[in-house]
């Protein structure tokens, strides 16, 4: 391992979907300013070198119903990592959800497809979304978009049978904790166990790559 610098953890900020009309533009501007302040903090943290790791700036952006992204292009362009995820209308019929995901994973701004089925496996639970996994994962492989292995205990997404389809398709993977609080980065072990159980090649896991390789991949995808 020597001096290899690891890229994780990425600082990832949810980009809440726009809901309702009202003073939408003002709210969006407010959020933009908040995010810019956060990213400035990330830059300061990296400059100070106090964490001993490089913190990457990034965002989790909503995939809209038509597969577009709920974010301005100029906002996404400078970021190291863009995760795109479905957080609404998870019960669309399979053809519509397939088209939605295909458009999103082919978007050059998108590096990672987050929690692809949206299922919840704890509490009251939530069934996975329906879509043509072979087509979506084939598109991920072709576009070089990584499939997230979400290690959050409530999610553990994708389910193993879908993860196997993504392995067969030749996808890249990103093991993410979906952490929202201190201590939750430990959940990465859940994702590693899942990857091992499903035969994921460690070389295909972008979060296992040295920093320079990871950044070269996200830059090559571009926004
Ligand atoms: Zn999410």
From TrEMBL:
What's the protein here called? PHP domain-containing protein
**Which InterPro entries would you find in this protein's record?**
PHP_phosphatase (IPR050243), Pol/histidinol_Pase-like (IPR016195)
* PANTHER family xref list: PHOSPHATASE YCDX-RELATED
Q: Where is this region: Disordered?
A: 1-29
Q: Which organism was this protein described from?
A: Acidiferrimicrobium australe
Q: Which domain of life is it from?
A: Bacteria
Q: Where is the composition biased (Basic residues)?
A: 1-17
